[in-house]
């Protein structure tokens, strides 16, 4: 008798006295096989420690039991890691595997859409953290792959997102409610077209809130940082101004936390000298006392996974466009307008 490590479907078939095709059907629970035969095949398979591969079983049903995530940012970032954790947890409950595809720069992106490694490898694809071009979207549609967008909304495609405009609007309204009028918005510019779009929508939310409050252009200060670690760029920009803002709204907690450190190093402390509010509710935001606009990333990931599972099963989602609300969380870095001595 073959050892456990070398048992094959043919071995199970021979000992059970059936064909290989019958073994395959029986182990997949096919109604074409009688209960008696199924029980006999299962007993032999257990004796040999044989299990039909999930991939092979899935192919027979037209499904692979895998969902892919195409993500456009480094996997070690807070957002990427949190999203992937949530997607994995929801897929695991459905006994579905997760396959990750990264496209964090133009070279990886071109390679992905040239080779299309998702072809015949996943049942559905979650596209997270960057926008597909029309050509890229058509390329995926051409192979019949169901898509789910995460962190963005696309007409006609199932999606899960937050309202970046409204979230920022609420955060800036909070600063205005504390008495601030001269407010700066700090935007991250990664110079990667198609990868970052939330930041632009957050700028829009900033202007909407300032418009509502009747704040003129002269009191709206737009700052740009080349990457989330460029807190020193923010600090130097504020330090160089003769009439600096009394508050900053920053488009991510990563950048806001780095800016707080850099500002402190040049003697500018929040909220004594300057209020700062971020966006995300990063894992470190609470520890550092950062006020922020919180987005529930675990909810985003779970909802995207549920949409992907529905599409992979060939079903139509009841709610294909999921909008997850944000909330303002005030901690230690925001306060009333500071009284400043003339420079």
Mean pLDDT: 87
Q: Report how far apart the termini are.
A: 90 Å
CATH superfamily of the largest domain: Response regulator
CATH fold call of the largest domain: Rossmann fold
Count of strand segments? 12
Apparent shape = elongated
Strand order of the largest sheet: 2-1-3-4-5-11
* Poorly predicted runs: 1-5
Give an account of the 3D structure.
It comes from Microlunatus flavus. Residues 7-61 form the HTH lacI-type domain. This is DNA-binding transcriptional regulator, LacI/PurR family. Keywords: DNA-binding, Repressor, Transcription, Transcription regulation. GO terms for molecular function: DNA-binding transcription factor activity; transcription cis-regulatory region binding. This protein has 343 residues and is of the alpha/beta class. It folds into 3 domains: 4-52, Orthogonal Bundle (434 Repressor (Amino-terminal Domain)); 66-161 and 297-324, Rossmann fold (3-Layer(aba) Sandwich), CATH 3.40.50.2300; 164-296, 3-Layer(aba) Sandwich (Rossmann fold), CATH 3.40.50. The protein contains 13 helices and 12 strands. The protein has helices spanning 9-16, 20-27, 35-47, 54-61, 78-93, 106-115, 134-141, 164-177, 198-212, 231-240, 253-265, 285-288, 297-312; strands at residues 66-71, 97-102, 124-128, 147-150, 159-162, 183-188, 220-225, 247-250, 275-280, 291-294, 321-324, 327-329. The strands form 2 sheets. It has a 6-stranded parallel β-sheet with strand order 2-1-3-4-5-11, with helices on both faces. The termini are far apart.
């Amino acid at each position: 008798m073959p050892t456990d490590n070398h048992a094959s479907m043919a071995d199970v078939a021979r000992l059970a006295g059936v064909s290989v095709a019958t073994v395959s059907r029986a182990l997949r629970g096919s109604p074409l096989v009688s209960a008696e035969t199924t029980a006999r095949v299962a007993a032999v398979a257990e004796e040999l420690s044989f299990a039909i591969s999930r991939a092979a079983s899935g192919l027979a049903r037209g499904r692979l039991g895998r969902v892919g995530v195409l993500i456009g940012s480094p996997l070690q970032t807070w957002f990427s890691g949190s999203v992937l954790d949530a997607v994995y947890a929801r897929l695991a409950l459905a006994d579905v595997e997760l396959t990750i595809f990264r496209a964090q720069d133009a070279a990886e992106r071109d390679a992905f859409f040239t080779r299309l490694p998702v072809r015949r490898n996943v049942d559905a694809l979650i596209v997270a953290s960057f926008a597909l071009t029309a050509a890229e979207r058509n390329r995926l549609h051409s192979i019949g792959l169901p898509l789910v967008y995460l962190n963005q909304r696309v007409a006609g495609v199932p999606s899960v997102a937050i309202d970046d405009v409204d979230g920022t609007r609420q955060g800036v309204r909070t600063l205005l409610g504390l008495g601030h009028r001269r407010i700066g918005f700090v935007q991250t510019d990664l110079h990667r077209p198609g990868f970052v779009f939330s930041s632009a929508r957050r700028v829009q939310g900033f202007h909407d809130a300032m418009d509502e409050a009747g704040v003129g252009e002269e009191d709206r200060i737009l700052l740009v940082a080349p990457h989330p670690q460029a807190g020193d760029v923010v600090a130097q920009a504020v330090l160089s101004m003769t009439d600096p803002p009394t508050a900053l709204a920053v488009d991510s907690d990563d950048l806001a936390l780095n800016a707080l450190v850099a500002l402190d190093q040049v003697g500018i402390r929040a909220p004594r000298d300057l209020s700062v509010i971020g966006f995300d509710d990063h894992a470190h935001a609470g520890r550092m006392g950062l006020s922020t606009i919180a987005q529930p990333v675990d909810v985003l990931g779970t909802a995207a996974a549920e949409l992907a599972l529905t599409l992979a099963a060939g079903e139509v989602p009841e709610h294909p466009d999921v909008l997850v609300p944000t909330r303002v969380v005030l901690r230690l870095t925001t306060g009333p307008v500071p009284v400043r001595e003339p420079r």
